[in-house]
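Our preliminary data section would be incomplete without showing what the modeling component actually yields. Below, a chain of 190 amino acids is followed by its predicted structure, encoded as tokens that our downstream tools consume directly.
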Amino acid sequence: MSERQKQICTDAMPMRHVAECGDLPFLIKRDGTWLYKGSPINRKPMICLFSSVLTRDETGRFLLETPAERGWIEVEDAPFVAVELEWSGSGKNQILSFRTNVDECVVVGAKHPIRIAHDLLSCEPTPYLRIRDGKGRFPIEARINRATYYELVALAEPGIVHGRKALGVWSEGVFFPLGDLPSCSQDVEC
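Predicted structure:
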């Protein structure tokens, strides 16, 4: 196709404009509950539909975006919660898989890493799993709920990360640290 033919095709195609809806009255609570105008959305298929068009913009804000319209929503922590863990194998051959509160299954690995954030005041760990990329550098994540995190910790083993001893888990041949192991001193037997 010549450049002239490409230009004619481009000119003939109507421009599709996405309608900007501004801030939408949605809130995703820390526990994974979706609210619309302050009321819980109780129909799981509706939540799954909305979650399929959830993304993040370049600044990290969450939005619902379809080919026709988009609007920003509020999320207290992460938009999803990892509620179930399954695993097979052990050591470097182990495979970890999480199910989210919207029934999405994600296998932990290089594309779907686990990260641990620590509360600034309490230093308590909060684990997250990358579900998918956003539009910028901010991913869409699931917070791993407490019971599922305890199951994950039960699978942990010692390893080395950046020259430091850590306790972590393997999945798809990648080691994911869950926390540092204490340094041994002369008074403490390791």
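The chain has two domains: 3-75, 80-176. The helical segments are 3-12, 44-52, 146-154. Preliminary results of this kind motivate Aim 1 of the renewal.
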